[in-house]
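REQUEST ID: PR-0412
SUBMITTED BY: lab tech R.K.
PRIORITY: routine
TASK: structure prediction, single protein chain
INPUT:
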Amino acid sequence: MIVYNAPFFFLETTGTSYIMRLTDEGLLQHVYYGKKVPHDDFSYYNIHHRWAFDPVIPAKDDCVSANALPQEYPTFGRGDLRQPALVIEDKKGRRINYLTYLRHELREGRELLPGLPCLNKNLQEVQTLVITLQDEITCAEVALHYVVFPQEDVISRYTVIKNPTDAPMILHKADSLSVDFERGNFDFISLEGAWARERYPARRRICQGTTSIESRRGSSSAMLNPFAALADPVTTETSGEVYGAAFVYSSDFRILAEGNQMENTRFQVGLNPETFSWKLEPNGSFTTPEALITYSSEGLGRMSRNFHRVSRSHLGKSAQKDLQHPIVVNNWEATYFDVTEEKLERLIQSSSGLGIDTFVLDDGWFGHRDFDDSSLGDWYVFAEKFPHGLQHIADLCRSHGMNFGIWFEPEMISPNSDLYRAHPDWCIHCEGFAPRQTRRQLVLDMSRPEVVENIYTQVAKVLSSCDITYVKWDCNRNISDNGSETLAPDRQLEHTHRQMLGVYELMRRLTEDFPHVFFEGCSGGGGRFDFGILYYMPQIWTSDDSDAVERLKIQYGTSFAYPPASMVGHVSACPNHQTARTCSFATRGEIAQMCNYGYELDIGCLFEEERRQIARQTAHHRILAPLLRDGEFYRLSSPFAGNVCAWELVSDDRSRAYVMAGWQTPMANPTAQYLRLQGLDPEARYHVEQLGLTLLGATLMNAGLPLRMPFEAYPVVAFDIVRTEK
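STATUS: complete
OUTPUT:
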């Protein structure tokens, strides 16, 4: 609910209040964000005096300082000395801006963002507040959009900047979200890592100055994810205050927290200003990507579940998202590039009858690709490898009860390719310099419509040529040589954002034109795991690290913002191809069960007992899938804080739960441990199938389940828990 009671704006969700006011000077002031409060008179709140050395706003008492005022969308140059949310350069080269109130509007529902992903589904209860401010220097109109999702305790933010004048102006910074908190004792929580160890939680205290995470890679990146949280230092998984923010965007970003000398904190999310500028022509406009913010007074777990719920309920174009995601087998670790028609026939045959839905043909099927040094951009069948074409493979899959899927890397081009030889200027490069390569590949300039059209035509032709129901969309390198031959010199810093808009346009066209195809995102594993990709694709390959024990940390960290139903986990071969670790088939299966499920190995090389395990695992995953898709997720024990990683899924009606616990290292003479569950009905009785016990929910949550470590390397235990009576 959104209420305007002059001079206050009240934004309410089920559990939170977000309050702003208009000052006498016309500034939009942030008042309060936190646990739900009444529509009281907050005139007493945010009492400010002039801080030492602060410039002042001319006022009756001559002591109101913009630098001391908590603001909604701050600028630099007229008194506020902190990080601005907006920087506009006028025709005289000035970068001084000052925003004051112009008008506001309350709308039912929301508008979708042109060319950008955003929360787009089930909008019946959603409201939008648009507050338009005007810059007294440039006359630019800045419309702040607040979209309230009441049931999920989430508010989305984005900004539309318009140039109503007859002269161009330059945007140098345009954040999607900015919030000023009148406290400074926060911890900054982010998700960091690298290829094959993505999204490890990191926590550090905010001090005076700026704490930030960012990407300058042309991708949201495996190194730093576009998510961050501000938490009270005493906040745990189950208690304490925390504010979480996530960016619905897949390219360069910056999330920062600035502490000042008066122990206040400014929290901002937006495009990375180091790789962004935008020339606003007369009557032109610019829309920032969407940012999400949520508040929890019940610890990090509640914050995560807020993000999970809003993603499940409101994000995604694909109708496939709400269906059971297919159980797949992927040939990559079975063959790598050495893939042939004969090998695929054997792999397909060996995968038959085990409950697998889809066989996915990975890299190496196109152009003349025998290694990673050629053929990206040549999306036609490698005839020497597949003399009977892809339809033959699809027919073979059908004859064995499976659908057929295929791998693409549409954004890339190999110097050794027909496409590069025809259009060497289509790669991203800086004029006068040879472009840098990664994996012997370059990146296509997707800011150019003709490039998007060419790749769309090629990929669409393949998808139309045979019965393909699944696409794995990969992206195996970042961008460094930013620039485009088609952009004017004063627009070169627009390229990074225009590149992402081109990628989104390609994703939009392909997912809309082939609605029966299930799309999976991938970027060298989890290098582009964000809500922007999840808008177009129901799931993302979580990491190229398929080692089950390593996946405990990766899946645990990913869950801070993203629901288990967005992750992909596969059972891979042992010794593992990334770590050389060997662990049991059951352990690999159980850890992957908490994701969208599949296999990444040569099933034909397995023992008969392992094949029987596959049949049992796939049958169990089908039972588990609705809980994975619609249930609430609880982190019970952190792999970063101890030896055991444990998590739990609970159905929305609390009638069913599934619990998994895994040990990262085996122990001799292990200590007794009890796992306290969450989310159950305390007064209901639940049957724990694996223990043969029926206990009250209160017992399971307060006393806990006994964890007995099996005698094996890297053991895992799991519990199916069903409510028997209220």
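NOTES: The longest helix spans residues 608-630.
REVIEWED BY: pending
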